[in-house]
Structure formats: structure tokens, C-alpha cells
Amino acid sequence: MSELPDRQAINAIIEGHYADPFSLLGMHQTGNKLEVRALLPDATEVWVIETSTGRKCAQLKCLDSRGFFHGVIPRRKNPFRYQLAVTWHGEQNLIDDAYRFGPLLQELDSWLLAEGTHLRPYETLGAHAEVIDGINGTRFSVWAPNARRVSVVGDFNYWDGRRHPMRFRREIGVWELFVPAARTGQLYKFEVVDNKGQLRLKSDPFAFESQMRPDSASVICGLPEKVVMREDRKAANAFDAPISIYEVHLGSWRRHADNNFWLSYKELEEQLIPYVKEMGFTHIELMPINEHPFDGSWGYQPVGMYAPTRRYGTRDEFRHFVAAAHAAGLNVILDWVPGHFPSDDFGLAQFDGTALYEHEDPREGFHQDWNTLIYNYGRREVSNYLAGNALYWVERFGIDSLRVDAVASMIYRDYSRPQGEWVPNHFGGRENLEAIDFIRYTNRMLGNTAPGAVTIAEESTDFHGVSRPLEMGGLGFWYKWNLGWMHDTLDYMKLDPVYRSHHHHLMTFGMLYNYTENFVLPLSHDEVVHGKRSILDRMPGDAWQKFANLRAYYAWMWAFPGKKLLFMGGEFAQGREWNHDASLDWHLLEGEDNWHHGVQRLVRDLNFIYRHHAPMHQCDFEGSGFEWLVVDDYENSVFIFARRDREGNEIIVASNFTPVPRTNYRFGINQPGGWREIINTDSVHYHGSNAGNGGVVWSDPLPSHNREHSLMLTLPPLATIWLVREAE
């Protein structure tokens, strides 16, 4: 005797409120009978077909006009592989029943996901093309432990949530379903009936490709192949390597002149990569390319952590862009934002009706500065989602480094919050202990799993040991942005030279803490927006002085200990603030040779000389690599120091930050002999006044500055010079 489903169960599954569809749909043994149940809205006739023979076994009866079918298979007791011949609108279709396939998640994957230690959760969760029992389809999995029902909807089922409700794996809170015939390129989302009974349509958190805003569907897309990190790429990230980073916003580096539209990944590959290589940079840093709904966030409010934005092309075109950068000898740094996410309803916010990825308490879970939500790092599944994402970009795209955004906002519970509007940790302190654990875990995991790839922290406080190893109590980053150096030196440079003597310490203070971290010296996008003006426009004086100051400052920066970072446009002294909706001002380089060309040539020369001479980069983080030769000439605003490599070779750097030439300026040196000028920012080649030392200057056996030998130089106005010792 068949066991017909009761009317209540039929109503529940048709209305989309049945939590366990596999208990009702598909093939079931009931006593001595074998019966098949199917939910096929709008179907008029349904037959069960034995796959191996193609024979019709039984016609299913329509028990509910809304599309619920049921039938007993005569003379069969044991389950077998079957298909359904379904007639819709007079046309018969042969389909595979999604409810004849067993559980999908493997035991080990389930264990690791529950534990929050799955190295590659993206290989299990999300949408994956698969062949099961010889049937091509897509395996869907999504974490939503508090949902009442989850269906996958998309191009393959008319976006009808009744057609493919998913199996709930209660032990780990994951919903799963294999959908036959769902194929690469089709759009999909998850339809969630949340814990309050509200219907939500959610993008896949693990989608490998997504639609471009304002659309927000996920795209079925295969997992990219792994990219092996070559030894030369590993070496280029090393502490003793020359690292000069060109920071880029892909949407505004250059645009089409006719319609102001973005360049594609392919066009950027053809134009941007050769330019960066020609300019002598070693690394290109991309502001976030994760899919994001709001252009004005510059990518720093991502919703598609696993999906490169479609603004510039497909996922595979972005992979090709990265490969082209590697072929050109450039390493690629990706800005990575694990600190917060936007509250758009199609994203992670209230994913299953609860604060699943975020905190319930807005004092912990809402970011007041950016109107975004803060990840709940104490939830294992959330930290695993993010840590897996870090490895995903490194392994699957060949990203060489992740620059982690806004680390301070992650590690402090009171970040940008007044007293009483934040929740202390369980020790009563202000540190976000769960975020710190997440950061340490991620850095350790990358170091062990992807050796050679590095992380860089944008951390704006003096938190101890940001770029120190975990065993020393550090956070485990390889590098940290030196925002203190950036603020101090820009504050100095914006002063009229007549006042600089009173603020001499702003240029020297950085050396007092230089060896506490492994620093990158950043002149980033943050310094050329929101009314701060361009770097050029912050320089004092008339046009000649502005450009002279900028050139002197760049040569100072490239010589100072620490890796270098310059935001796009800075290399040719763009005069206006950066605008993400427009191209850089490339027209400044049109026509006759001018001051902008001069700055561009200088940056190119600084990069190539910096890379060629080991004293300028090899011992950035070793005390032996730097020595002040003149540190206290406040009155003349003169600074002179030596950079040194491990072989003891030196380069002398001298800066005069006043418009007054300093002739016959004598100072003590360590190594007597001839010294040749290899950089002079006042050179006519850079549109300076061409004061300088004209080749080789020989030392004298005259004591100065507590040294037995000395040099006498001409220090050009508002200029920095580099000198290298002539071979004997």
C-alpha cells in the first residue's frame, strides 16, 4: 500500500516552507513498494524512465494542480537510476531528478568546515560543476544554519524557489543540492526563508563570478586552476629586495576618451603593464577588485569576496592580466578588505535572518565611519570564510601579496568610538582578541601553505609587533605601512622653507622607530582625496618651487629606509586631486617637454637606480644599512645620510630643503675617495636650475663631523642628490 503524502506536507513544500525536501521528494521505499514523488509546477504529464533501458516504468499522477506528482513503480522494490519525462506546454522534456542524488558533502570537509580550519572552503561551498552518476550538473552548497528553507534559483529553473529546495546538513548548518543540467555561465542566487519566515534573495558568498552592479546575481563558474609561484616572484617580495610599488585604481588610471568608459582588463594589460614596467616599478598594487555595488567605495566595500569585478571584464580576463604582469617581471599586490562589508540586502547582511557574518550588537557589528558591518571573527565559519579567501587569491590567481586594509579598525573594539559605545573584551580591554587571532592564523596559514607570498598591513596605530613573527608575539605581517613617516614628512614639506628649520625633527623622527617594524613608505590614494589636495599642490611656493620641492621629496623618500609606494598620477605630478570617475590628467604630458615630464623622468630614474644599487634597499631593516652624516643642521634645513649594503658599499644622500644653494658645504664621510653624482633632482634633465657638482667630487683628508675625511659639495636649492663611490 503506498503512503501518500498528507495534504499539509504537500501544501508546505509547494509554498516553500518544507524544511526537508528529500524526505518527501524523489524515490522512496515504502513497505514493499517503490514510489516517486516530484514537484514540477506547470507540468501536465510526468513519466518515470529507467535510465539504463530508456523504458517507461510508471506515470505519475498529479495530486495537486500546483504541480505535485506521485506514483508507485509496479513490480519494483529496489531503487534504481531514473529520469523524468515531463511535458510542459505540450513539449516533452527528459530531465534528471535532483532528488535522486544522495548527500554531497564529504565527511572530512564537513568536519573541517565545522571546526573552522578548512584551508580551502571555496572548494566545498559555493557552486561547482560536477558529474554524478554520469550526469553533468552543478553542486550548490551554502552556510545558513538558522534558515527555515533554502532553495537555489536561477536561469535553470525560471528563478522559482519551489523547484529546487535544498537538503539541510544540520550538523554543520549547510544546505546542499546537486542540480542536473545547471551549467557554467548561468545565473543563480539562493532563496532563503529566514528564521523569521521572511523571504530573502541572496548572492552566493563563495561565487567565483558575479554580475556587475546594479545586478547582483552570481554566475556558475569553474574554480580557476592553481598558479605556481615562481622563485623570482618569491625573491621579489623578500626583505632585502628592492620593492617599489605603483598603486592603481583600475577604473580611473586611464579611460576611453570618447565616452569616459573604463578600460577592460585586456586593455589594461596592453597599456598599464608596459607603462609600469617602463617606469621601473617592481610591484603593481591594485585597489580592491572584489565585486562591489558602489563605485564611490573604490572597492573597499566588497560583497563578492571571491569574484573579481565585472566592471572591467571576466574572471579569466583578470587572471590573464595577472599572468601578463608576471611575464613582464612585475609582482601583483591586491588590496584585501577583511574588516567590514556593506549592508546591501543581497549580500551577507542578516544572511539567514540572524547576524550570521556580523555581530548582533551594533556596538560590535556596525562600523560608524563607513556605514558598514563588521565581521564576527569569533565565529569559526566566518574567520574560515575570510582566511580561505586570502589563500584563494594567492593560489588561484597568482596574487603575490595582500595589502590588508584598515587593520586598526579590526584589532581595536573602540576604533573610532566614544566611551560607552563599544564593548570591551572578556578581559575588559579594548583589543579585539578574535580579530587578532584571525589575523595571526591567516598570516601563519599563508606562510605555511603559500611560501613566498606576503601580507602588508595598513595599520595606523603603534600596535606592538605588526610585522613581527608570531613566536615573538607579533601579528605576523611581513610589512607595515609607515603612516607616521608619511604624515610627518608631508607636514614638513608643506611648510614654507623659512619655517622648516623649526620643524627639522619631522624629517628625522622616523629613524627613532625605524627598526621596530618592516616598513613600506606610502604615498597612497588616501593622501590625494577628500580635500587634502594632490602631493604637488601641497608643496609651497610658486610653480617652480612646487616642482622642485616635490622632486627633492621623492628622492628623499626613495633613499630613506623602507620599501616604496606611490599612487598613480604622482609619478608625473598630477596637479588636481584624484577623481575615481575620471581618467588621470594624461594631457599634462602632451605637447612640449615640461615640468611634469621632468618629474616622470625622475621617478623612472629613481626606480632604476634604487633597484640597481644594493645599498638603497638591501638593509632597509638592519641598523647597519643607515647612518646619519649630518642630522642637526636645523638652520640650513640640510640632511645628509649614508645608505649601506652588507658588503659595506655606501651611497651618500644629501637634501637641501631651502631655495638657497649651499656652496662649499663640507661634511664628514666614512669612505675617502671619489664620489659621483648619480641623482640630482635640480638637474636640467628634470627641469631644475642645473646647480650641482658636475661629475666626480674627491674627498679631502680634513676632519669634519667627527670623521677624518670629508667632502665639500654644492647642495642645489630645494634638491636632493645621491652620490656613489667611484671604483678605485
From TrEMBL:
Hey, which pathway is this one from? Glycan biosynthesis; glycogen biosynthesis
Q: Respond yes or no to whether keyword Lipid biosynthesis is given for this record.
A: no
Instruction: Provide the active-site residues from the annotation.
Output: 405 (nucleophile), 458 (proton donor)
EC number(s): the record gives 2.4.1.18
A GO molecular function for this record? hydrolase activity, hydrolyzing O-glycosyl compounds
Q: Which UniProt keywords apply?
A: Carbohydrate metabolism, Glycogen biosynthesis, Glycogen metabolism, Glycosyltransferase, Transferase
Instruction: Pinpoint the Glycosyl hydrolase family 13 catalytic domain residues.
Output: 247-609
Which Gene Ontology cellular-component terms appear in the entry? cytosol
Instruction: State the Pfam families in the record.
Output: Alpha-amylase (PF00128), Alpha-amylase_C (PF02806), CBM_48 (PF02922), GlgB_N (PF22019)
Biological process according to GO: glycogen biosynthetic process
Catalytic activity line of the entry: Transfers a segment of a (1->4)-alpha-D-glucan chain to a primary hydroxy group in a similar glucan chain
Summarize subunit and interaction data from the UniProt record for this chain.
Answer: Monomer.
Describe its function. Catalyzes the formation of the alpha-1,6-glucosidic linkages in glycogen by scission of a 1,4-alpha-linked oligosaccharide from growing alpha-1,4-glucan chains and the subsequent attachment of the oligosaccharide to the alpha-1,6 position.
Tell me the protein family, please: Belongs to the glycosyl hydrolase 13 family. GlgB subfamily.
NCBIfam families registered for this protein in UniProt: branching_enzym, PRK05402.1, PRK12313.1
Protein's recorded name = 1,4-alpha-glucan branching enzyme GlgB
Q: Which gene encodes it?
A: glgB
